[in-house]
Design brief:
Layout: H1 8-15, E1 28-30, E2 36-38, H2 39-45, E3 53-54, E4 61-62, E5 68-69, H3 71-93, E6 106-108, E7 113-115, H4 117-121, E8 130-132, H5 133-189, H6 195-241, H7 245-249, H8 252-264, H9 274-277, H10 288-295, E9 310-312, E10 318-321, E11 342-343, E12 352-358, E13 365-371, E14 388-394, E15 398-401, E16 407-409, E17 417-423, E18 428-433, E19 438-444, E20 451-456, E21 469-472
Antiparallel strand pairs: 1-2, 1-5, 3-4, 6-7, 6-8, 9-10, 10-21, 11-20, 12-17, 12-21, 13-14, 13-20, 14-15, 15-16, 17-18, 18-19
Length: 478
């Protein structure tokens, strides 16, 4: 209703009320935009802010927290309170029964309404329980006041939940950015072939962010709606508590039922636990398992290349060193005679390829690739200059890439399984510690020949290095 035609007392009450708590202003202060609030209300509204203080009404923001006392408005609030009390007293004095035009000074408990003396003896109320209006007023006022405390507690809890939900988008943004950087860095290490997988995961991350943000917005909207309903109900109850007996008891049954309904109301928020449910990607390299299975063929060891002191398993998937040769093997130009190693049955002249080797607790081993033209007879120097690219372990704890000179490698976790990735066109041969999912070393070279996977199980040192090297399918890195 326009201000010009509204009840002047109602207009005064609106102007004397705080827009935050919806009650009469207490210790009113004015902020820079000209709106007035209770000092305590605006202080709570701004308590978690360090800058950009918004007005709860017009949303205009200010750099500084400026609160000026409005004593003149405070006087108007007191006048409005007195006018309200006077008006309600007059209304009570003039309260008459609509049927009998008699003073309403009784209360029917059965019908929950005020009645007069004539009503009490009428057929409608003759068998009902009737008490003096003043007694009923005191009784129901106490009931209403008992409703206030749990409702106010519920209001405070909802305000707390709303504040917490409103802060979660900031935390979500930080976590999304952190996870985005992790995804990018991991895929950079895994070269160009993972770019498509990277884009898929980033899209998935953004979709999950949007989904979670929508849930948070829905939660905040629901909490705001419930908060408004509670504020309205509390304001109505407090207003009734200030009314005369007859006015307060009007529709009292409906008011109490609404109180009970609001107290029993459960928050139907969608749970959003960022720590537990957020961004549940695989822990490392994400889609690596699917990609590596696509890159890995059925790699086996070639008996024709095996040194005479090496023993291969029946499936040609594992190799170990033995001190005594079990049998004489026919000489072959492809067989190593001094360096106790073995090659795979498949070599590569293009593409990307990956294989994993279980090294267990061995104290000596070497893995890598070699050129097709390397010398396999007599003494050799296994370096990139002679066509060998390897990572090796010796003496149980010394790791190195066999560059010239050797590059010492300091591994935080001893690998029990090693992954080897060859990108022929990119000229990269990379080694990974599958045990802790970390990068070990990458050779960068221009490959010009056919490359063969190479396996050196190391010589035996008593029982310490007796275990075989075993070709395994890629580990499920999740």
């Amino acid at each position: 209703m326009p201000m010009a035609t509204a009840n002047p007392l109602e207009n005064l009450q609106v102007e004397a009320s705080c827009s935050v708590c919806l009650e009469y202003l207490k210790d009113p202060v004015i902020i820079d935009c000209g709106h007035n609030f209770c000092r305590a209300c605006i202080t709570r509204w701004w308590e978690d802010l360090n800058r950009d203080f918004p007005c709860p009404v017009c949303r205009k923001t200010f750099r500084h927290r400026t609160l000026k006392p409005n004593r003149q408005l405070g006087n108007m609030v007191e006048i409005a309170k007195q006018l309200q009390i006077t008006t309600k007293r007059k209304a009570r004095d003039e309260s008459l029964c609509e049927k009998h035009n008699e003073v309403l000074n009784l209360f029917c408990r059965d019908d929950q309404e005020a009645i007069c003396l004539v009503c009490e003896i009428s057929h409608e109320h003759r068998s009902h329980t009737v008490v003096p209006l003043d007694d009923a007023s005191l009784e129901y006022k106490e009931k209403l006041q008992q409703c206030l405390e749990p409702l106010e507690r519920q209001l405070q809890y909802i305000a707390h939940c709303k504040s917490r939900e409103e802060k979660k988008p900031v935390e979500l943004k930080r976590k999304v950015e952190s996870r985005r950087q992790l995804i990018v860095s991991e895929f950079e290490e895994l070269h160009q072939f993972l770019e498509e997988e990277q884009l898929v995961l980033l899209r998935r991350l953004e979709e999950e962010e949007k989904e979670i943000l929508q849930k948070l917005k829905d939660n905040v909207a629901q909490l705001s709606e419930q908060r408004l309903s509670l504020n309205n109900l509390i304001a109505e109850i407090e207003e009734k508590c200030l009314q005369s007996g007859i006015e307060m008891l009007k529709d009292i049954k409906n008011t109490l039922e609404r109180c009970e309904m609001m107290q029993a109301l459960e928050l139907a928020m969608v749970p959003v636990e960022l720590e537990k449910n957020f961004c549940s990607f695989p822990r490392q390299y994400f889609a690596l398992r699917k990609v590596l299975r696509r890159l890995m063929g059925d790699l086996t060891l070639d008996p024709e290349t095996a040194h005479p002191n090496l023993v291969l398993s029946e499936d040609c998937k594992s190799v170990k060193f033995v001190d005594q040769r079990l049998r004489d093997l026919p000489d072959s130009p492809r067989r190593f005679t001094i360096y106790p190693c073995v090659l795979a049955t498949e070599g590569f002249t293009s593409g990307r390829h990956y294989w994993e080797v279980e090294v267990g607790e061995k104290t000596h081993w070497a893995l890598g690739v070699c050129n097709d033209s390397v010398s396999r007879k007599g003494e050799l120097t296994a370096l990139p200059e002679t066509g060998y690219w390897r990572v090796r372990l010796w003496n149980g704890d010394k790791y190195a890439a066999t560059t010239s000179p050797f590059t010492p490698l300091h591994l935080a976790v001893k690998p029990t399984r090693v992954g080897v990735f060859l990108d022929y066109e990119a000229g990269k041969l990379s080694f990974y510690n599958v045990t802790d999912r970390s990068h070990i070393f990458t050779f960068t070279e221009t490959f010009t020949e056919k490359l063969w996977p190479l396996f050196y199980p190391g010589i035996r040192a008593g029982r310490k290095n007796a275990a075989p090297l075993i070709i395994r399918p890629p580990t499920d890195w999740e």
